[in-house]
C-alpha cells in the first residue's frame, strides 16, 4: 500500500491535469484491492506450501515473496519518492512543501530504513547467510511498525515553529491537506 500511495502522489505532482481530469475515480481503490489480493494469494500460497512440509517449494515461495517485496515494491517507492522529493524541493521556492508530502516521504523513508532490512534478512536466510543478529532485524521491524504515529504527530504539530498539541489536532492538521 505504501508503494501505491507513493506512486499515486508522484503522479499527482508530475501530471496534475491528467490526475484531476482524466484519472479514473476508482483507480486507487482498484489498485489497493489488487494489492490486497496479490498479498493474500502470495501469503496463502507460502503458508500452504510450508505447512504441507514441501520444503523446496516452500523455500522457493519464500524467496519469491521476499524478492517481490524488496526488488519490486521497495524500488518503486524509492523512485517515486525521490521524484516527489525533488519536485517538492523545486516548488518549495515558491511556497512551502505541503505537510502531506512530508508525511509520505518520511513514512516511506523510515519504511526503507527500518522495514526493508527484515525482507532482505529473510531473503538471505533462505541461502544460509546471516549478516546481523536476529534481534537487531526484529527491533528495526518493531520500530517501523510504531514510528508512523510519531511522524504524524511531529509533522502535524510543526507549522512555523514546533509546539506540542494534542494528537487529535496534529492528525487533523496533517490530513486536512
UniProtKB/TrEMBL annotation:
The protein's matches in Pfam families, at most eight in alphabetical order, are given as: 7tm_1
* GO terms of molecular function: G protein-coupled receptor activity
Give Gene Ontology CC terms: plasma membrane
Report the domain of life of the source organism: Eukaryota
InterPro entries in UniProt: GPCR_Rhodpsn, GPCR_Rhodpsn_7TM, MRGPCRFAMILY
Chief location of this protein within or outside the cell = membrane
* Key word Cell membrane present: yes
Q: What are the G-protein coupled receptors family 1 profile domain coordinates in residue numbering?
A: 1-152
Please list every transmembrane segment annotated in the UniProt record, as residue ranges. Answer: 27-46, 66-88, 100-124, 136-155
Instruction: Please verify whether the record's keywords include Membrane.
Output: yes
As for membrane topology, the entry says: Multi-pass membrane protein
UniProt keyword list: Cell membrane, G-protein coupled receptor, Membrane, Receptor, Transducer, Transmembrane, Transmembrane helix
Q: Which Gene3D superfamilies match?
A: Rhodopsin 7-helix transmembrane proteins
Q: Where in the cell is it found?
A: Cell membrane
Q: Which family does it belong to?
A: Belongs to the G-protein coupled receptor 1 family. Mas subfamily.
Task: Give the protein's recorded name.
Answer: Mas-related G-protein coupled receptor member H
Amino acid at each position: 500500500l505504501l508503494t501505491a500511495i507513493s506512486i499515486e502522489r508522484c503522479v499527482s505532482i508530475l501530471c496534475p491535469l491528467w490526475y484531476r481530469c482524466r484519472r479514473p475515480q476508482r483507480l486507487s481503490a482498484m489498485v489497493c484491492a489488487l494489492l490486497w489480493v496479490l498479498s493474500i494469494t502470495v501469503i496463502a500460497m507460502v503458508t500452504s506450501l510450508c505447512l504441507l512440509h514441501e520444503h523446496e517449494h516452500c523455500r522457493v515461495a519464500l524467496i519469491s515473496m521476499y524478492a517481490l517485496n524488496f526488488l519490486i515494491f521497495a524500488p518503486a517507492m524509492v523512485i517515486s519518492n525521490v521524484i516527489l522529493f525533488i519536485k517538492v524541493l523545486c516548488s518549495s521556492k515558491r511556497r512551502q512543501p505541503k505537510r502531506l508530502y512530508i508525511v509520505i516521504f518520511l513514512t516511506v523513508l523510515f519504511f526503507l530504513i527500518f522495514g526493508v532490512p527484515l525482507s532482505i534478512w529473510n531473503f538471505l536466510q533462505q541461502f544460509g547467510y546471516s549478516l546481523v543478529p536476529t534481534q537487531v532485524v526484529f527491533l528495526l521491524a518493531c520500530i517501523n511498525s510504531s514510528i508512523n504515529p510519531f511522524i504524524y504527530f511531529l509533522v502535524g504539530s510543526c507549522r512555523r515553529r514546533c509546539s506540542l498539541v494534542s494528537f487529535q489536532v496534529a492528525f487533523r492538521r496533517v490530513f486536512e491537506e
